[in-house]
């Protein structure tokens, strides 16, 4: 099946959304009832500092949270914070005090004034048009604004409405005068996130049973396996452990001199999608197929290009003395294996 298809359905009782591109599962969003959504805003209460880590534990309605900030914060003090990622079992919810109010076309940034337009929009007349819209919608607001790449070619009224909706939410949250811990704004669920983030033209399927009809369930069965098939007969095994995610690259039946670099380049291209769909983050160690040291630079370039197109923050750390390659990736989602269980 060619083209892009967005399927809005459920997995069990959980709301879910899937993006299929040319018949292949490209992205998957699944709600978790027992975990706060990313983007949720709390009025939290400072609990106790952890000076060795440069942070503070906070109390929230959903449990303990951790904020990497101590300066100006005392135990018992209320503070507005926003969930930034997924909390592993037994660990605190990661939060930030720098609130972002994000919609399909606009991001309002109360702590970062200024009007900015995505660098992906390069046409100067279009940038000027959007800047004019932004100035009109933000007049007197006193907050910062980022217009996303999805704004390109969109009618000015739709962009202005998006900005105004976020400004209304900012006003509601920042004008709060309560002192007890409370959820002030719920993070977006999978269906809203699909509308917000998957902005390229696509067919939208909302009928019940869409996951089965469009092959999403079959793709999930394949994702339950550690083995990921790569081009040219190679493969990689993506295996999460308690401490890290281990990725082992194999050349398969290819016995040529270039088998190692071919398998490793295929791994570089496929790795962001595999990690995204499996919901994996943290420390990631690549045990690559054997290749000459002169081929390391092209591999790094391919890996950098692949992760540049991925929206989850990933740091390419580099090579270890044993010849492994390490990455550090934000835990933006719950592991798929945990969701399916």
Overall description:
It is built from eight helices and 20 strands. The protein has helices spanning 124-138, 156-174, 190-197, 210-213, 216-223, 259-278, 296-308, 336-340; strands at residues 4-11, 14-21, 24-30, 41-50, 55-60, 63-67, 78-83, 93-96, 101-102, 106-109, 114-117, 144-147, 182-185, 203-205, 227-229, 235-240, 245-250, 282-287, 314-319, 325-329. It is α+β, with helices and mostly antiparallel strands. The two termini are 29 Å apart. The protein has a six-stranded mixed β-sheet with strand order 15-16-17-18-20-19, with helices on one face. A five-stranded mixed beta barrel has the order 4-5-6-8-7. Strands 3-2-1-14 form a four-stranded mixed β-sheet. The protein is globular and about 65 Å long.
Helix count, DSSP H or I runs of 4 or more residues: 8
Q: What's the helical proportion of residues?
A: 25-40%
Give the radius of gyration: 22 Å
* Biggest sheet character: 6 strands, mixed
- What amount of the residues lies in strands? 25-35%
- Tell me, briefly, the overall form: globular
How far is the N terminus from the C terminus? 29 Å
Enumerate the strands of the largest sheet in spatial order, edge to edge or round the barrel: 15-16-17-18-20-19
